[in-house]
Every structure is written in C-alpha cells, then in structure tokens.
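Bumping my old thread because nobody answered last time. Still need a sequence for this structure:
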C-alpha cells in the first residue's frame, strides 16, 4: 500500500540520503519508476503535477499508483506536485494521495504561511504529509512560470520561522535550480542550503534537479531529503521514441514503440537512485 510521504522523508533525513521524486504521466513512466525502485531496492515518491492530472485524470493517476504500491516491495508515496489551491489539495487527499505540495511561493510571506497552515489542518489528520515552498524557483512547471529575474533565493531565517509556524513536513527551497532544461550549467548556492539545514529540522526538497551536475547533487544530498526529477525522464522518453521510429519507420505497434522509452527512463531512475544514496535503503 502507499505510505505517507512523511514516513519516507523522515527515514531519508535520519539515514543521510535523499529520495527521488519522479513525475508520473502514464503507465509506461510509472512502470519505469517502479521497476527501477524494485531493482535498486529504493524507496520512491511518485509525483503528479497539474498537467499530469489534466492529461490522465486524477482517478487514473491515483489508481495506477495504488496498484503499483500494492504489488511493490519497496515504500512508495504519491505526491501532488505544485498544487496551487486548497480545493485541489482536498481532492487529492480524497483520492488517496499520501503527500501533497501546496505552492504558495508566489504569495507574500504571511499569505504563504496561511495557506500552508490551512492545508496542514486537512492533510495531517488523514496521515498525508505536506510540502511547502519558500523562495521562487525559476523556470516552467506546467501552468507555473517564474522568470529568471523574478526567481529569489530562500532566506535561511525565514525558512526556520516558516517551518516552525506551518508545521509542514517538507520544505522546497530555492538555491539556484530551475524547472525545465537549463541553458548552461546551473550554479547552486550550496552554502545557503547548508545554512538552511542547520536552522530547521524539517526535511528539505530540491526542485529542478534534472541537469544538475552529479558533484553538486552529491553535496546537496547531505542537506536535502527529496530531489525532484522530471525533465530528464522526458528527454530519455522522447529520444528513445525518436530513435526507434527512425530505425523502424513502418512500426505501428505502440507497445514496441514505447518499450524502448520505458527502458531508457528506467535507467535514468536507477542512476538517480544510486546518486541520491537511496539505493538499498528500502
């Protein structure tokens, strides 16, 4: 069965590793993530963004995750990624999500705190963990667009106050990552991340980690408990499909077309689990 995101993140923080949170849009992506988790013996967090819920439908996303968790031997949580309304969060809780993110990072500090507190009041009694975001992470995440000039790094003192007042279970911080593909190598403020980690006990989350150099991830994973990956899965998927169709232009069987894509995504997930230190931690 699905477990609470809190259970997975607390174990990661205590164990000194990070758990990958991989975005789910269809069955092949789900299978790639779960097969990788089983082979690596790693806990894993499945994520559904607003775009995924619109594309597949919340019933299908929740159903796929539930079936996978029932068959799996590793801990699995299902998280709403970048929820933007209280109503959306409640809907996800009702459909069996075991973790939700309420993204109030576009709001003023006090309003961000207020919306997170409201979500916590609903989620915690249902054993659903709550992730919040402080600071603005640049890039595009479905309907959420933050211009690079508007991105702001997380203030460590504000992070401590925010975590204490909201009682959130995880906090996404802005230290220089961005959603979507990078133009050049990202420069992360790892010292800021270290300071934030010393000022609060809440598990920290790194968004926009696709494309971040491995060496930076190895340092960051000392301070974060959850690392989000989406873009690299999309790249692996699209490249595998394009390569297959170029070599087999007359193929019309979707199973044969999508098979190589699933295999490519699985290898990305397996590599991330080893990099994050979660392999063997299930």
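Sorry it took so long. Here it is:
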């Amino acid at each position: 069965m699905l477990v609470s995101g809190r259970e997975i993140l607390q174990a990661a923080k205590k164990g000194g590793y990070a758990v990958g949170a991989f975005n789910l849009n269809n069955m092949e992506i789900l299978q790639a993530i779960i097969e990788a988790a089983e082979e690596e013996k790693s806990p894993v967090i499945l994520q559904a963004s607003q775009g995924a819920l619109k594309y597949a439908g919340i019933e299908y996303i929740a159903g796929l995750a539930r079936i996978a968790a029932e068959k799996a031997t590793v801990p699995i949580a299902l998280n709403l990624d970048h929820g933007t309304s209280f109503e959306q969060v409640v809907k996800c809780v009702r459909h069996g999500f075991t973790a939700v993110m309420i993204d109030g990072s576009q709001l003023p500090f006090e309003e961000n705190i207020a919306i997170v507190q409201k979500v916590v009041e609903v989620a915690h009694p249902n054993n659903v963990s709550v992730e919040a975001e402080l600071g603005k992470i640049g890039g595009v995440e479905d309907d959420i667009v933050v211009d690079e000039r508007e991105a702001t790094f997380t203030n460590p003192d504000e992070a401590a106050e925010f975590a204490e007042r909201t009682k959130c279970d995880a906090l996404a911080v802005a230290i220089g990552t961005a959603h979507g593909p990078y133009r050049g190598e990202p420069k992360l403020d790892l010292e800021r991340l270290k300071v934030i980690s010393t000022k609060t006990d809440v598990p920290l989350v790194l968004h926009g980690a696709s494309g971040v150099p491995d060496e930076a991830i190895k340092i960051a994973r000392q301070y974060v408990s959850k690392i989000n990956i989406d873009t690299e899965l999309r790249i692996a998927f699209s490249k595998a499909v394009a390569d297959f169709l170029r070599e087999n232009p007359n193929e019309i069987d979707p199973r044969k077309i999508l098979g190589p894509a699933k295999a490519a995504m699985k290898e990305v997930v397996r590599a991330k689990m080893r990099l994050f230190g979660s392999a063997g931690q299930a």
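The longest strand covers residues 76-83. Let me know if any region looks off to you.
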